[in-house]
Amino acid sequence: MNKQCLSYFATILFILLIIAPGIAVAKDNTPGYTNVSACEAKKMIEKGNTFVLDVRTMAEFKAAHIKGATLIPFKNVPLHDPIILSDDKLLPARINEVPKDKKIIVYCKTGGRSLNASKLLVEKEYTNVYNMQGGIPAWIDARYSVVSTFVDESDVDSCTKKVLNAKINCALLHLKRGNDNKAKQELDKFACFVNTTERVNRISSSQAEYLRHEAELIKEMI
To answer: What is the pTM of this model?
Structure first.
């Protein structure tokens, strides 16, 4: 090997020795989860073998959630949720409910809690974790349907439930069609009906407060 070739080889080797550690560090710093859009998440769900994880509060979940999603709150608030967790904790005892043999789609309201939850799952050696960016508003903006359960789970009488559910379902239908303003109008009608039934003592003040609060949570997702 002549001196010119030897010098060239030595230069290449020197460069590799310098950049190789940086490449290794960059590889080690990969997050371990994948950010996906609402559209990508929807396609994954349709293909099956996915576990949809909602990490919002119980109240947010009951207001509107992706059908089939499992709720494991990342942080709860005391207003309508009995359990209070610190900012960096997922319900530790329930993390075992998340399967390791499926793709895990994590979502919240805006993407912050789902991002932290995704990181935590990776730390717990979950390998197929997908963080849905934009949260539930992005899902709604894409005109994908959501499910609301708070009326059914309330303790108002069946006749009142029927009327309330009709108004909520109408609002959700408008959301799926992309008619946000009409959806908000239906939610306003829902609140007005709640106020009326409260005035005539068909529902209690605590029931009315709960129902209005849940309707406002839906509005916040639009």
So the answer is: 0.79
Could you read off the pLDDT of 79-135 as tens digits, one per residue? 344 455 555 554 756 788 899 999 999 999 999 999 999 998 999 899 999 999 999
Distance CA 92, CA 85 (A): 10
Paired strand residues for 53: 70, 106
Beta strands in 4-102 (DSSP E): 33-36, 50-54, 70-71
Tokens of 187: 């939610």
Domains of the chain plus CATH, in order, are 33-141 (3.40.250.10), 158-221 (no CATH)
Q: What is the rounded CA–CA span in Å between residue 159 and residue 189?
A: 17
Q: What burial letters (b/e) apply to 115-140, b meaning 16+ CB within 10 Å? A: bbbbbbbbeeebebbbbbbbbbebbb
Structure tokens at 47: 């293909």
Q: Which two tokens stand for residue 176?
A: 């799926």
DSSP letter assigned to residue 65: B
